[in-house]
Amino acid sequence: MELEIKVTRRSISTHWFINVFLVLAAAVIILETIVCISIQTRYYNSVYNAAREYTKDLSLLATCERENFSNTAKEYIEEFDHKEKLEIQIIDHRGKVIFASNGFAPTEQEMPDYQSAIAEGGPVKWTGKNAAGEKVMAETTILTDFGKGSNGAVRWVVSLEPADSKILLICLMCVLVGVAFLFLCWVSGMFFIRSIVRPVEEVSKMARKIAMGDFDTRIAVPKESEIGQLCDSINFMASELKSAEQMKNDFISSVSHELRTPLTAIRGWGETAKMSVGTDDEIVKKGLDVVLGESERLSGLVEELLDFSRIQSGRLKIEIGDLDIGKTLSDAVDMYYELAKQQEIELTFFPVPNTLFVEGDRDRLKQVYINIIDNAIKYTEKGGHIIVSQYEEEGVVITKVTDTGVGIPAQDVDRVKERFFKSNKKVRGSGIGLAVADEIVKQHNGLLFIESKEGEGTTVTVALPSITPKEEVTEEIIPPASEAVTTEETENE
User: At residue 380, what are phi and psi to the nearest 5 degrees?
Assistant: First the structure.
């Protein structure tokens, strides 16, 4: 049964449209609305101010007597010079339009501004539609009564349609500008999104291939942009994953071989010893020795794997204390004299001439030295030479293990401390020993260096900060540095 998971998600284009384009469109609409309202207000104010300027001289009508008001109003209308721009209406004290510059007197229902002016006693402006449906602006001004009883009013009316036509034209131009702006934003946005979406789709496609184990796939995208940098990173990741996968496979193969060899020996010699019990004690003893030796080897491999697991999970324990580092190195070297002799390798040890102390874990640092010396023996051929030396320099204890083995290729020197990495796959080993050793040295505030030349040999250096012990320690008698201990001298003894 296949499990299908459907994920509903919005595309980048949808996100851009909702979060950017709609917001931008709303901003443009709001801005254009404000602009159009401002334009209308400005034009209407211009019309109003012009109309008031044309009708400002009302002194003649205001000061005449009531019985002369009609004649004076007629004279005012006849002499009015701006009849083509606006209409003038003269209203007597009874509210009746007695003169109109266009010859048509409006009804009271068409003069709401007059009724308001009577009630308020001052000029009142009104904007609306007249009886013909034309949009107009009007204002009624009550004439001041200077005691002669004129008490009439003057009303001007101006058409707003010419102004509205201009306002409409300007607003349409603003709308076209806004639409053009939004269109350009849409086109550029879509172009930009496609320039991102297509590479992202390619990255997604390639990432799925990598996730499925195809580490040879690569993404070809121009490198000038951040997308290109992302593609470079993914290509680099694929290379590293391929390398890690190869190292993992090599590690599994190496560990399988490391486990199978001793297990085969244990099983074979166990069966041989079992069949020889009571008949050949020498074979039984040899078989038990092999079983014990291979068991010890298996135990060491398992412990190395456990240490690596502890390092990976941050659970590696280090018991810090004052430690005679020279004695620790000497104990590690002593373990390999016999093995070196069996493989016809000369092992020379130059011990430190005086007692040196460091803060550290004796077992862990001994594990480091054992790992380094064991590697030196593994990679040194018959007739080779291994030199182990230790000295103090500027408050640092230096330990060097130099061999005349096969060496490490230049391109692999910086990688031999990586987990699972093995430069020489023909030699036994899990490929994690140096990684464990390097981590232990780091946790002791030290450094582990590797120098090598292919075909000539390798030098591994461990540097640890020395200390002055808190308590007095009994000094051991150590032979001078010039007296080197070798495998040949051991044989003579």
Answer: -110, 130
